[in-house]
Amino acid sequence: MDTQFLVSFSIIIATFALYIGIAVYNKARATSDFYVASRGVPPVFNGMAIGADWMSAASFIGMAGTIMLLGYDGLAYIMGWTGGYLLLTFLLAPQLRKYGRYTVPEFIGDRYDSHTARVIAAICTIIISFTYSIGQLSGSGVVIGRLFEIDAKLGTMIGVVLIAFYAAFGGMKGITWTQVAQYVVLIIAYLIPVIFMSLQLTNSALPWLSYGELVGKMGELDRELGISEYFAPFTNGTKWQFLALMFTLMCGTAGLPHVIVRFYTVATMKAARWSGAWALLFIGLLYLSAPAYAAFSRFILMTKIAGSEITNLPAWTKSWIDTGKLQMADGNGDGVLQWSELIISNDIVVMATPEIANLGVFVIGLVAAGAMAAALSTAGGLMISISSAFAHDIFYRVWKPNSTEKTRLSVARWSIVLATLFAGLIALNPPGAITQIVAWAFALATGTFFPALVLGVWWKRSNSQGVIAGLLVGLAVTLGYIFAAKYGGFTILGIIDTGAGVFGATAAFLANIIVSLATAAPSQKIQEEVMDLRYPEQMVYKDGEVWMSEDGSTKA
């Protein structure tokens, strides 16, 4: 065994032991522990857990690679995902926390007083979370495959076993504190390489300020090679695709069930708002670094790898070729590797960069541990969402309302295990790159939950028939467009499958509003509950007026 393997393996095993120890220490012993961590998580730690939940394999592994390959057009991911947290923090999270439920389907079922809406919402949760989890398990396969120098598919199955164990054991309580630790690991693992690369290439320890000078140099290299310039906008898609993708990711963020449920783990509306503020800070550390990471990686590849003799390439290239994620071929037979002959998957850029930049075995191992932390943290949250949708919203609230707490916990844990195994099987041969698969999950959330939640909180006239129509129409339109664009070549204004949410959301909003207006209004009780959501917790909406206390004894 070489030194790099031993160091990487030791760091990953140490972090795994930490995660499993935290999960065991914080084992869920009641359903409130399992679903909402007993609503006792402080906002700053909840912000870190949200950050870890959010900075998935797509963000950690795929984001910088996507920007490296797409240039300006890749920024739609950063702007969309970050903007979505502003939408969620100010538009939905505090109101959903005030309603006091465990899950998004439970909010929809109770807000619209409909078991049918609850079941449809639960099915949508399972579809969205399942799609998202395929990307995470695929990402864990990339990391484990490189570490053991085995096929990424075998690495995926190892990741499945790890995730199934600690997610099923700890529930939301265990996952929350595990995610706090995972955030610390992944952000350190992300920042150290980009700071060291900045020192190597620009003599500055502030990559966020220094990478601009390299972007200018890359423009000159791009012109010499006759390829589209790195910072030129809309060279990899139309302007409409850029805007549609940004909209889809933004609204999808505000509608993702596994993200929203994190705001249920705090005690108050105020704590929910502060959780969102802390999450933006913690997420911003990575997202502001991703463009710098991408620029440095591309510059090193263009200047130190492209133009090298095929027989004299660095040793790291063979290791990545073995994973199936890197391809090199001397197409013109001149014995020199041209930029156009280098085919690198955007899913390996972050993982490979420490080796490309020769940053040492410790940094390589640290990045591997950070990537695993990102994939595991998000996958754990997704599995809790799938479990809660089935075990709580369908099994308990609809099918077996008299089941004991022990039975409910058992069903919840087994549903996590089965969902992880099933998602892992699909992740063995994923239908797209990690960021693409994740974008589909966001499109589905945009077309289903975003309209249902926005109208559910801010339009008291929306009723059960309207939300059912909106969920079904939005799901059908989004799925239909994804399949038509990816497999049928059908597009509108150049908008491809990753921007499908813009059509799903439009259709869902229209369906919900039209059907709600064409049918009877919700009861007066429900309408007052909706109005009540808009005010701080000490204020209550009652009899058409706002009161300062829960018992209605003091008028505002």
From TrEMBL:
Record's keyword terms, sorted = Membrane, Transmembrane, Transmembrane helix, Transport
| Sequence intervals crossing the membrane | 6-25, 45-69, 75-94, 115-134, 154-171, 183-201, 240-264, 276-296, 359-390, 411-431, 437-459, 466-484, 490-515
Lineage, top-rank taxon, reads Bacteria
List the InterPro entries: EF_Hand_1_Ca_BS, Na/Glc_symporter_sf, Na/solute_symporter, Na/solute_symporter_VC_2705, Sodium:Solute_Symporter
Q: Among its keywords, does the record have Phosphoprotein? A: no
Question: Which is a Gene Ontology cellular component entry for this protein?
Answer: plasma membrane
Q: Drop me one GO molecular function for this one.
A: transmembrane transporter activity
Pfam families from the xrefs? SSF (PF00474)
Name the principal localization, coarsely classed.
membrane
Q: How does it sit in the membrane?
A: Multi-pass membrane protein
- Cellular location(s): Membrane
Q: Which family does it belong to?
A: Belongs to the sodium:solute symporter (SSF) (TC 2.A.21) family.
Looking up PANTHER family in the UniProt record yields: NA(+):SOLUTE SYMPORTER (SSF FAMILY) (PTHR48086:SF5), SODIUM/PROLINE SYMPORTER-RELATED (PTHR48086)
Q: What is this protein called?
A: Cation/acetate symporter
